[in-house]
Amino acid sequence: RLNSNKNVSEGLKAEERQSRKLILFIVFVALLLDNMLLTVVVPIIPSYLYNLDESADAVRNNSLLHQQDPAGSFRSIVSLYDNSVKQSGFNSTTRSADPVPPTPAGSELLQNSSDCPRFSKKLLNENVKVGMLFASKATVQLLTNPFIGPLTNRIGYQLPIFAGFCIMFLSTIMFAFSSSYALLFLARSLQGVGSSCSSVAGMGMLASVYTDDEERGHAIGIALGGLALGVLVGPPFGSVMYDFVGKTAPFLILAFLALFDGALQLFVLQPTKVEPESQKGTSLFTLMKDPYILIAAGAICFGNMAIAMMEPTLPIWMMETMCARKWQLGVAFLPASISYLIGTNIFGTLAHKMGRWLCALIGMVVVGFSVLCVPFAKDIYGLILPNFGVGFAIGMVDSSMMPIMGYLVDLRHVSVYGSVYAIADVAFCMGFALGPSIGGSIAESIGFSWLMTIIGIVDIFFAPLCLFLRNPPGQEEKILILHQCCPPASGRWTTRMGLRSGEFPGPGANM
Predict the structure, then answer these.
(1) Which ranges does the record mark as transmembrane (predicted)?
(2) pLDDT above 60 (res 101)
């Protein structure tokens, strides 16, 4: 009978492990699709909007020419982006063999059409439009997160994550068929609502099923690998598909993958159930007043703000200075994406051993110095090393700060995770909301080089604050429970009364 009970117990544990792996896979796929849609537009939108504006200007100029010269004549329209020369208008009285003298302005454009434009007011103006469109998703997500976090505490994680899938699918279809700035802006904003549901509910679900601190860090590292893979695949996938197939194709492929994720959620999570948390979690405002949670959130925000500022401005800077082709605008982000994937997988486990505070501190410094090196690139190959450093360092920050958010709640508050991961997502979104909107304006006003200098210095100066996460104080009774359930690998716990508890150091400490 004892053997029979033992076998049943082992079977239940195996089933629980399998169920946790399925949940981890669902969150992985959800974050993958969210971030593919987030980044697939990076190389598409600047070029697409520029071409829309150029076409509108060409039609307007053609109309003016017809009004001024009813007989009509051939006029040269030079694309500053791909340096092609187009002829507009038709003169029925002019023989094809007769040369048509271009206007003085046209002659100047034709002389410069073989060179990449070193300075173009139109290109600079695109910074603000593209920055605002990119920032709209993160801004809406920022506003939605405070409602999604407490909602997961009341109804569970299954319904919000499935709602996120539905909204993301609708947003993807809108991106595929939108042909105006207003509709693209609406699609990007709608994505923010779906992303908020998916990321907050997904991370909270992982934190609730992986209760051991080391296992949780490993699981969140794998989930962030989905985010990294989406960031990795998105820009090159978008640029290549856009250049060789068209704007609609990449979004239709993403919509098909989203349907697969939705079917998986229906099968495994059964999102028709409402499963509230068994205990009432700490309020969102109480968590927001916790200085240690704020430091961790700040590291996430400023670390990701660096790449967020680069997304709308780097392609335009490349078009100005490198005469980059469409496919190169997305491929330039490839080193950052690959290194982020490597960083999150390595430091998901390693950060627990070396000290998450130290991992984040080093990551912030490396982000700062890497960003400072970006403007020195003379061609696309010169961007490889700085972008690799940016991605790897952000992977260090995210893979150490995301798990420490859950640990700080365990240590200092009630172990309900929806609200704390809403704060983490708010921090992430603040980086991606302020980054493109402010970055686009700064790049237009004082230049791309100064923009990179500013965010690099901010990251370097923020890094020392991670020292405070080395040994965060906690409630003595919670420290004892954590010590019995899942003793940390390194560090020493400190109670709120200043008393030392246990001989084991905390997870943020350095060995």
Answers:
(1) 22-45, 161-184, 217-237, 249-269, 290-309, 329-350, 357-377, 383-408, 420-442, 448-469
(2) no
Average of pLDDT values for 290-306? 91
Residues comprising the chain, all counted = 511
Residue 11 CA: distances (Å) to CA of 19, 87, 209, 210: 12, 74, 18, 18
What residues contact 20, with CB distance under 8 A and at least 6 apart? 209, 210, 219
- Output the pTM of the full model: 0.66
pLDDT tens readout for residues 306-355: 888 887 788 888 877 877 776 777 778 888 888 888 888 888 778 888 88
Complete DSSP assignment for 193-253: HHHHHHHHHHHHHHHHH--SHHHHHHHHHHHHHHHHHHHHHHHHHHHHHHHHT-SHHHHHH
Rounded distance between C-alpha atoms, residue 316 and residue 323, angstroms = 10
Write the single-letter amino acid at 397: V
Q: How confident is the model at residue 373 (pLDDT cuts 50, 70, 90)?
A: very high
Burial, 70: exposed, middle or buried (Cβ in 10 Å; 0-12, 13-18, 19+)?
exposed
Q: DSSP assignment, residue 42?
A: T
Residue among 251, 415, 235 nearest 326 (CA): 235
What is the distance between the alpha carbons of residues 183 and 197, in angstroms, rounded to a whole number? 22
Q: Give residue 406's identity as a one-letter amino acid code.
A: G
**Per-residue model confidence (pLDDT) at position 279:** 65
* DSSP, residue by residue, 126-172: HHHHHHHHHHHHHHHHHHHHHHHHHHHHHH-SHHHHHHHHHHHHHHH
Report which DSSP code applies to 16: H
> Which residue type, as a one-letter code, is found at position 67?
Q
